[in-house]
Design brief:
By secondary structure, the protein is of the alpha/beta class. It has one domain: Alpha-Beta Barrel (TIM Barrel), CATH 3.20.20.80. Helices cover 40% and strands 17% of the residues. The chain is built from ten helices and ten strands. Helix 7 links the parallel strand 4 and strand 5.
Length: 310
């Protein structure tokens, strides 16, 4: 009875949101996607239909996402958060995202946990528990694992773990979820955009059966950054081995960039390449990517969001 009462409140809130529209779905699609009794399939993959954000403070609070919505004039339909290995799926945050018409995008980071041990089944009790919570949530969830493995900065990446072990861990996690009957997951395989020192993505490809979306993380560091050298080459490389839908899964523009020119080209590239959309990394990490601290980027972003999602 508690579960039914909670979903009644969620449905009431979503009915209002659906009437107001959603940047990723039409009203009827939003109703089918979020108000249906359960979700037993990956998310739709219509091009240029997803607007996401990462905000410091999530998943503890949804308020930073509300501030982002008010600032840019559109509610995101993907909200990214990072989850340490051993942490359960955050159902309370997923519920808050649901009420706001958004899907949680969870990046599970293994940290120092051995990928070889994950692949061997030593953490299956944790994975079964996580999968059961996602299944009980019963609405769309996007899950990524051990992202940017073709870079060198994480303990699970190119300099630390053989690609075949990384693939074995990914496939094992997928199979545990499948065995639990958790079929409301969109699996996002996330790589870093190609540049000097970044490994070719194909080495980590687990196979079309095990992936729903491809995510590409890339950033505009200076005035020389453009869509082609940040994302274009990587998209071309990915298309040599899979036709899976592609999401720009992290992007930001540093204060040294030139957003007046770069931002329109970013959104144009999404449309022309028929990508799913983007997730704006609205935080400080090595550099300050926050829109509120970059007025030119903020104005250009808001303008392009209005054009793409209105």
């Amino acid at each position: 009875m508690i579960r039914i009462a909670r979903w009644g409140a969620v449905a009431a809130g979503l009915a209002v949101l659906t009437a107001c529209g959603n940047p990723g779905f039409t009203g009827s699609e939003a109703a089918r996607q979020y108000l249906a009794p359960a979700m037993h399939a990956p998310l739709p993959h219509r091009p240029a239909s997803y607007l996401g954000t990462y905000e410091p403070g999530v998943p503890r609070s949804y308020r930073p996402v509300e501030h982002f919505t008010a600032a840019v004039g559109h509610a995101p339909n993907l909200v990214l958060y990072y989850s340490a290995w051993g942490k359960p799926f955050d159902t309370s945050f997923a519920d808050r995202a649901l009420v706001h018409g958004a899907v949680p995008l969870v990046q599970i980071d293994p940290g120092t946990t051995s990928l070889r041990a994950i692949a061997a089944g030593r953490f299956d009790s944790y994975l079964r528990s996580y999968a059961s919570r996602v299944r009980a949530f019963g609405r769309p969830v996007v899950i990524g694992f051990a992202r940017e493995m073709n870079g060198s900065w994480y303990r699970w990446s190119i300099k630390h773990v053989p690609a075949r072990i990384w693939i074995a861990a990914w496939r094992h996690i997928f199979e545990v979820f499948r065995q639990q009957g958790t079929d409301n997951v969109t699996w996002q395989w996330t790589i870093n955009s190609l540049s000097r020192g970044i490994g070719p993505p194909r080495a980590w490809w687990p196979g079309d059966r095990y992936v729903t979306w491809v995510g590409i993380d890339g950033y505009y560091y200076n005035i020389d950054s453009n869509f082609e050298n940040v994302f274009g080459r990587t998209i071309t490389a990915v298309r040599r081995f899979t036709g899976k839908p592609i999401l720009i899964s992290e992007v930001g523009m540093a204060p040294q960039s030139e957003p007046v020119a770069q931002m329109p080209a970013l959104f144009t590239g999404i449309r022309q390449r028929r990508l799913l959309g983007l997730v704006w990394f609205d935080a400080r990490a090595l550099r300050d990517w926050r829109l509120e601290n970059n007025p030119a980027a903020f104005r250009a972003f808001r303008q392009q969001v209005t054009r793409m999602y209105s």
